[in-house]
């Protein structure tokens, strides 16, 4: 799930890891206390798995313990894609505890990443905590998940992980990715402080992305609009519903600009909706998925395809409803990120996040502001 190419198979990679430092040279985290209860708990939760880390890889990692019983990795019910975590069952609780003490925080084989383990009961609860995510564009070709994560984590301790989106066929980076935070104030600070900072050899451009809610499920919106606009390659217009009344055309443009060249933005007077038109379909595709549910001006927006130019010509009587009606249909998420192209770099002056060096427009720490103000704060800086 996390965009890094799988390592070449090596016969010895399943050996138990030696005692070693975890991230930043710190010793591996001490194992949590064994849960009490009448039933023996012998299952561990494992998280932060990359997309290629399947059951075979995980089994090979733990098989040398001699106590591995089963591996179950969680997949999306609709797409079948791995979700980055799962459960490992051992033959006894004592065996599970030994693995937790030995492996947790140690480096995984053939990858710059440590094991993240916990007792299954605690792991399930932890996975339900909310994520606060940002979009990172203009990444150099050599930036991996680990490099992107460490670029942010050295400044923001709550960083949970990072994903560089890769082409499914070539496994090459598409030039953008995502960073997940556990603290909304750190996410908001990073939106301003890290925009234009260099990662590897290129300055990054930062934009908002949809956050995972505390239930662990992204909010989806009803599908009431036809599929015609979705399948029309000439359609580059996105409908934005649920807008905060304070949001202006310029504010809306600033949110969408990091994803591509925005050629037109319109918020009808007195309506809590708007329309954003991109210069190309790939940028619109990317923005539609990645900004779904994003906070803009204190409200979570609902995105769908607007009517394509050909559709508007065929149905002129509905054109006014598109630009003025608050009840236009909402079309749900696309599945996965693989089909969405990388938006070409734009003029950094269009992004509206403040100057690249010195951050002269950064007036006060965003950490002191409530979560619902995070995008509003970015817009006004």
From TrEMBL:
<dbReference type="Pfam" id="PF00076">
    <property type="entry name" value="RRM_1"/>
</dbReference>
<dbReference type="GO" id="GO:0003729">
    <property type="term" value="F:mRNA binding"/>
</dbReference>
<feature type="domain" description="RRM">
    <location>
        <begin position="236"/>
        <end position="308"/>
    </location>
</feature>
<feature type="domain" description="RRM">
    <location>
        <begin position="132"/>
        <end position="211"/>
    </location>
</feature>
<protein>
    <recommendedName>
        <fullName>RRM domain-containing protein</fullName>
    </recommendedName>
</protein>
<keyword id="KW-0694">RNA-binding</keyword>
<dbReference type="InterPro" id="IPR012677">
    <property type="entry name" value="Nucleotide-bd_a/b_plait_sf"/>
</dbReference>
<dbReference type="InterPro" id="IPR050825">
    <property type="entry name" value="RBM42_RBP45_47-like"/>
</dbReference>
<feature type="region of interest" description="Disordered">
    <location>
        <begin position="1"/>
        <end position="35"/>
    </location>
</feature>
<keyword id="KW-0677">Repeat</keyword>
<feature type="domain" description="RRM">
    <location>
        <begin position="42"/>
        <end position="122"/>
    </location>
</feature>
<dbReference type="GO" id="GO:0005634">
    <property type="term" value="C:nucleus"/>
</dbReference>
<dbReference type="InterPro" id="IPR035979">
    <property type="entry name" value="RBD_domain_sf"/>
</dbReference>
<comment type="similarity">
    <text>Belongs to the polyadenylate-binding RBP45 family.</text>
</comment>
<keyword id="KW-0539">Nucleus</keyword>
<dbReference type="GO" id="GO:0005829">
    <property type="term" value="C:cytosol"/>
</dbReference>
<dbReference type="InterPro" id="IPR000504">
    <property type="entry name" value="RRM_dom"/>
</dbReference>
<feature type="compositionally biased region" description="Pro residues">
    <location>
        <begin position="1"/>
        <end position="19"/>
    </location>
</feature>
<feature type="compositionally biased region" description="Low complexity">
    <location>
        <begin position="20"/>
        <end position="35"/>
    </location>
</feature>
């Amino acid at each position: 799930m996390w965009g890094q190419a799988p390592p070449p198979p090596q016969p010895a990679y399943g050996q138990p890891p030696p005692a070693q430092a975890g991230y930043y040279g710190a010793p591996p985290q001490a194992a949590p206390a064994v849960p009490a209860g009448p039933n023996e708990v012998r299952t561990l939760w494992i998280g932060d798995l990359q997309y290629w880390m399947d059951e075979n890889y995980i089994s090979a990692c733990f098989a040398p313990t001699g106590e591995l019983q089963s591996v179950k990795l969680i997949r999306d019910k609709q797409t079948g894609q791995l979700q980055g975590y799962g459960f490992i069952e051992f033959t006894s609780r004592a065996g599970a505890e030994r693995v937790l003490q030995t492996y947790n925080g140690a480096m995984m084989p053939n990858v710059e990443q440590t094991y993240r383990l916990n007792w299954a009961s605690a792991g399930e609860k932890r996975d339900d905590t909310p994520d606060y995510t940002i979009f990172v564009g203009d990444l150099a070709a050599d930036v991996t998940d680990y490099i992107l994560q460490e670029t942010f984590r050295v400044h923001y301790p709550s960083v949970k992980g990072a994903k560089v989106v890769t082409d499914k066929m070539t496994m090459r980076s598409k030039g953008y990715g995502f960073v997940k935070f556990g603290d909304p104030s750190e996410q908001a600070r990073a939106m301003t402080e890290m925009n234009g900072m260099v990662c590897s050899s290129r300055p990054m451009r930062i934009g908002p992305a949809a956050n995972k809610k505390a239930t662990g499920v992204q909010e989806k919106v009803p599908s009431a609009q036809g599929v015609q606009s979705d399948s029309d390659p000439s359609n580059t217009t996105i409908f934005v519903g649920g807008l905060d009344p304070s949001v202006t055309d310029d504010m809306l443009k600033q949110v969408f600009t990091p994803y591509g060249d925005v050629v037109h933005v319109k918020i009808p007077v007195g309506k809590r909706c708007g329309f954003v038109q991109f210069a190309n379909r790939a940028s619109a595709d990317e923005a539609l998925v990645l900004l779904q549910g994003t906070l803009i001006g204190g409200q979570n927006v609902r995105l769908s395809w607007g009517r394509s130019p050909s559709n508007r010509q065929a149905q002129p009587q509905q054109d006014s409803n598109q630009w003025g009606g608050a009840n236009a249909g909402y079309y749900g998420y696309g599945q996965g990120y693989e089909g969405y192209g990388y938006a070409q770099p734009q003029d950094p002056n269009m992004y509206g996040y403040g100057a690249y060096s010195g951050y002269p427009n950064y007036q006060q720490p965003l950490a002191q502001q409530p979560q619902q103000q995070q995008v509003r704060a970015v817009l006004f800086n």
